[in-house]
Structure formats: C-alpha cells, structure tokens
Amino acid sequence: MKSLAGILMLLALFGCQISKGTLSDSSSISSEDIPLKELASARGIYIGTAVTPGPLFNNPEVAYSNILVREFNIIVAENDMKFENLEPSSNNFNFSTADKIVNLAIANGMKIRGHVLVWHQQSGWASSVNNPEALSNILSNHIFTVMRLFSNKVQYWDVVNEAIDDNLNNSATTFYPNLRKSFWWTNLGSNYIEYAFQLARAADPTAKLFYNDYSIEAYNNKAYYTFLLVSNLKAKGLIDGIGLQMHIDTNFNPYSNGFANNLKRFSDLGLEIHITEMDVRIPVPSSYENYTAQAKTYKDVLTVALANTNVKAIIFWGFTDKYSWVPQFFTGYGNALLFDKNYNKKKAYDAVWEVLK
Ligand code: G3I
After folding, report:
1. How far apart are CA 175 and CA 230, in angstroms?
2. Does the structure show a pLDDT above 90 at 139?
3. Biggest alpha carbon distance in the chain?
4. Which residues contact 139 (CB under 8 A, 6 or more apart)?
5. pLDDT score of 8
C-alpha cells in the first residue's frame, strides 16, 4: 500500500493535484490508491465503522476484514460491548467477543469507541430490576468492571446513550423534564446520568467520556435539551465529548437545518464532537437517483462537519449494505452505507473520499 506521505511527495514533485480517478498528467492517483484512513489521518481526524462479529470471526469473509483494515482507523462494536452482551447475568461478565474486536483493533493500529455503558435498550436482566439501591450497585459494578478491563485500550466511551425523550415538553427551561422515563430514570432519578459519568471518570480517568444521541444533529429542540444536559456535565468536568449518531435519509440538508450552528454550540462548550453512527438510508430497490442523492448527502454532511475543528471522528454504522441495521428497522429502506452488498465501492464512498481529500 502506498503511504500518503509518499504519494503527496510524488504529487509535489510532478506538480499534480489529486483528483479522483484522473490527474492533470498521465499518472493516476485515485481512491484505489489512498484509503479513507490515510486522508483522514492527514487531516488529524479518525474515520471509522461499527463492526459485527459474524463476517469477522464466526463466518469470516476476507473482503469484510480487508476493507475494515484498509479503510478505517477507529472502530466500535455494533452490539458486542452493550450491557446485555458484556454482563449476560448478574456479575457474570463475558468479554470473549469484545476482546476479539479490541485485539483486532490494537493489532491494526485502530482506536476504539466503547459503546455503550448506560442505555435503556439491550440492558438484559438489569432492565427488570426494580430496586434503586440494587440498580445503583449494578451500574457501579458494570462501569468499573468494564472500563477497568479496557483501560488504555478503549480511548472513548459512550457513557450514556439516548437519555433525552422524543416527546419533548418544549416549554421546559431545563433538560430534567425531558429525560426519557427509562428504568434507569425510574429507579435512580434524574441524577443517574451524572452518577454514571462520575463512575466512568473514576473507573478510567484516561478515557474520553461521551454522551451520545440521535436526531440531535439539526438545530432543533432535542439538540437544545441535549446541549443543556452536556453543559451541566461539562461545568462539572465530567464529560469530554458529544456523539451525534446521524442516522439520516437524503432529506437531511445540513445547509438549511442549522447543522453548523448546532456543531458550533457544542464546540463552543469545549466538547470534542464525533459523528458516531452515520448512515444515509434510501428506498429499496434503489435507483440511480437514490444513490446519487445519497452520495450528495454524505458529501454535504461531511463538508459541513469537517469545517468545525472540534469534529475529530466520523464513524459509519457499518460499511457494507450486507450488514446494516436499516432494513430491519425502516421498512422499504436500506443500502445506507459506503459499500454495496458485494463489497463494491458506491458513489457514497467516492463522495466521502473526495471530501476527505
Ligand atoms: O442476538 C440475537 C440473536 O441471538 C437472534 O438470533 C437474533 C434474531 O433476530 O437477534 C439477535 O439480536 C439482535 C441484535 O441486534 C444483535 O444482532 C436484535 O434482534 C436486534 O434488535 C439488535 O438490533 C440492534 C439495535 O441497536 C438494538 O436496538 C442493531 O443491530 C444495532 O445496529 C442497533 O444499534 C443502535 C445503537 O446501539 C444506538 N443507536 C441506534 C442504533 C440503531 O438502532
């Protein structure tokens, strides 16, 4: 594989400009030569993907691991570091798959996002505990056990995920009335979030701690209440970053929905920003126009996002349409990622490549 430094030196020598597929002279530098991660590294950011163990370990697909290692320099387990998987029964931890993912990342020089310590979904047996003191101990034991095990290996943790409700009381002046009434909230009250961040800070002071949520990318009310929540945590020194999931479709227009202002609001707080779960779903079967619109959405979002220097990571929720949560959850939609089901690059890949370049 050519190194980016070497390629840039060649370009400088020949006075060429990188352009995908063609150059002004006879040589050719294209997305075939420079993987996304080299372009991202040159900009000082990380580019990454969620991974699933099936094609990596259970029924290995060479194309899956080749693309993963070639293109990305940060990964996140799509499901394997969630509560129900790491602690399938009380104080009984199972790190087998998570360990494999972490070791794969380390062996390939990738950073790791830990997802997720506290969520209202995929929390298994803990979600039926109706006893505040017991649940408080469960939370503490889980966070300490998991974060200490992965200390110095997992650099970023989604400490709390999706704690803001979708049905908002828009006249509220604080975030408290708009917290999701999850089992965490019911048992531990509104302060469970701050408590989780305190535990996480104590468990691994070297990790960067994130709050992560969906539909908070535009300058909307959910983003506003999220802003109030993370402002409160930031004032107490408990949080380092905000994760914008970014599960979107082609109607998402970052030039008209306040995306840049929203990023600014978070970066002005001094938070690092990660796009944590990006995918752009389109109708299936998908037309040429659908794929073209999808590529434009990827391009526009990344262009605006990368103009904010606090945006340090762009992570897709998978990279091949063969393995994506979208068709199961959005009937009639799919094909949301950068590679098709046969691992061919799509226009969306080219769009991301062009922006990173
Ligand atoms: O593990 C079981 C397996 O044993 C069983 O045979 C199979 C049958 O359907 O189900 C498997 O569990 C599935 C699990 O993913 C693991 O593949 C669940 O049914 C399925 O609901 C679950 O979906 C995950 C979803 O979170 C759960 O809410 C998706 O894969 C995952 O992509 C999605 O990820 C979330 C992020 O964590 C948070 N943000 C939103 C994002 C998309 O929903």
Report:
1. 10
2. yes
3. 71
4. 118, 184, 188, 192, 195, 196, 199
5. 46
**195 CB under 6 A from ligand 1?**
no
The rounded distance, in Å, linking the Cα atoms of 195 and 202 is 11
C-alpha to C-alpha distance for 223 and 238, rounded to whole angstroms: 19
Q: Which amino acid is at 52?
A: T
Amino acid at 311: V
Confidence (pTM): 0.93
Residue with tokens 């997720």: 116
Q: How far apart are CA 31 and CA 90, in angstroms?
A: 48
Tens-digit pLDDT profile for residues 242-255: 999 999 999 999 99
pLDDT tens digits for range 280-294: 999 999 999 999 999
What six digits make up the tokens of 289? Answer: 């126009």
**Dihedral pair phi/psi, residue 134, rounded to 5°:** -65, -45
In contact, 207 and 151? CB cutoff 8 Å: yes
Sequence letter at residue 20: K
- Annotated catalytic residue 217: no
CA 236/CA 194 separation, integer angstroms: 9
Separation of alpha carbons 162 and 246, rounded Å: 13
Ligand 1 centroid from CA 208, angstroms = 25
Q: Is 277 a catalytic residue?
A: yes
Instruction: Indicate which atom in ligand 1 lies nearest the CA of residue 329.
Output: 43
3-state secondary structure of 324: coil
Asked whether the beta carbons of 114 and 158 are under 8 A apart, the reply is yes
Separation of CA 90 and ligand 1 centre (Å): 21
* Ligand 1 touching residue 83 (CB < 6 A): no
Q: Which domains, and CATH codes, for the chain?
A: 4-356 (3.20.20.80)
Please check whether residue 100 is in contact with residue 75, taking contact to mean a CB–CB distance below 8 angstroms.
no
Closest residue by CA, ligand 1 atom 17: 79
Q: Sorting pLDDT into bands at 50, 70 and 90, what band is 29?
A: low
Instruction: Look at residues 229, 238, 215 and name the one whose alpha carbon lies nearest to residue 174.
Output: 229
> Cα 243 from chain centroid?
7
DSSP state of 57: I
